[in-house]
Every structure is written in structure tokens, then in C-alpha cells.
Amino acid sequence: MWNKTAGAIKYMAKHYANDYDYFMKADDDSYVIVENLRKILRKENPDKPFIMGRRFKPFIKQGYMSGGGGYVLSRAGLLNIANGLENNTVCQSNKYVFAEDVKLGSCAEATNVSVIDSLDAEGRECFHPFSPSHMLTKNANGYPEWYLKYNYHRIDTVSFTNKHIYT
């Protein structure tokens, strides 16, 4: 999976970086509420290198974005990572880690791409890695152990009255 993601980042940087401000990676089973995502991104600067999504904490000092809920790269973030990918010593430092999201997080940190949290004004996550039915029926004790361990911020049930949910 990492090779596909790295290839896509390099391709987008080469062919689309001048045409778009932000680039989103999401799985084929993700649902994105584009209006909400646009609203939060209006407050950001695409020329500031950042990545935004659900932040996980182990393995990478600044954390990394969970692949399950999708993530957004600013144009500058995309270009920094693409340049790092061209230099194997920069973005291949975790060659024994095979998780795509961890490798991307390592590369982001190595290329000075900052992590931006995706919390709303009430401290609730806006990028969600599980289906709505799964998120609504679980309390913090009902999630897999790895999820409780990896999540950077506190875990609560999802409120779909949250007007700022993105995925």
C-alpha cells in the first residue's frame, strides 16, 4: 500500500500541485462531507506544509494520520513529501515499518510537514475511521484495544449533531 501512496503523491505533485490547494486521500468506502471540509480548510493556508486527519500517537514523535478516516495534505505538504520521496534517505527511514499511514507520518515529520488536529470547537474528532453505525454504538470501552492505544485524543461516542464532521 505504501508504494501506491508514495507513487500517487509524486504523481499529484508533478501534475496537479499548481492546480489545487489541497489533496485528500480516502478509501473507496469513505464518505466525505465536502462542505464541512471546505469550511475548515478556508481557515488554513495551502502554502503552509501540513497534514490533517485523525491523529494517532505511537511510532512518530509528532503523531501521524490514521489512514482509515482519510487525511488532507496542503499543497506545500504534498510538495515537501514528494521531494522527500525523491530522496530515499529522507522518506525511507522506517524501511521495516509496513503500515502506509505510519510511513507517511514518518515522511511528513522528516520533511517538516506539520500535523494539524481535526477537532471541532468542542474537542470532538471530525475524521472517523469506522462506519457511522459502528461509531454510534460504541463507547470508549467498546473499541478495539489498538484504537484506544493509538488515538491521540480522548475517545468518545460520535455525535452526529456535530456540524463539522468530515468523514
Automatic annotation (TrEMBL):
Pfam families: Fringe. Its EC number is 2.4.1.122. One of its GO terms (molecular function) is glycoprotein-N-acetylgalactosamine 3-beta-galactosyltransferase activity. It is a single-pass type II membrane protein. Pathway: Protein modification; protein glycosylation. InterPro entries: C1GALT1/C1GALT1_chp1 (IPR026050), Fringe-like_glycosylTrfase (IPR003378). The keyword Zinc-finger does not apply. It comes from the Eukaryota. Residues 15-118 form the Fringe-like glycosyltransferase domain. It is an enzyme of class 2 (transferase). Gene3D superfamilies: 3.90.550.50. Keywords: Glycosyltransferase, Membrane, Nucleotide-binding, Signal-anchor, Transferase, Transmembrane, Transmembrane helix. Its main location: membrane. One of its GO terms (cellular component) is membrane. It is found in: Membrane. The keyword Chaperone does not apply. Belongs to the glycosyltransferase 31 family. Beta3-Gal-T subfamily. This is N-acetylgalactosaminide beta-1,3-galactosyltransferase. It comes from Schistosoma margrebowiei. The lineage of its organism: Eukaryota, Metazoa, Spiralia, Lophotrochozoa, Platyhelminthes.
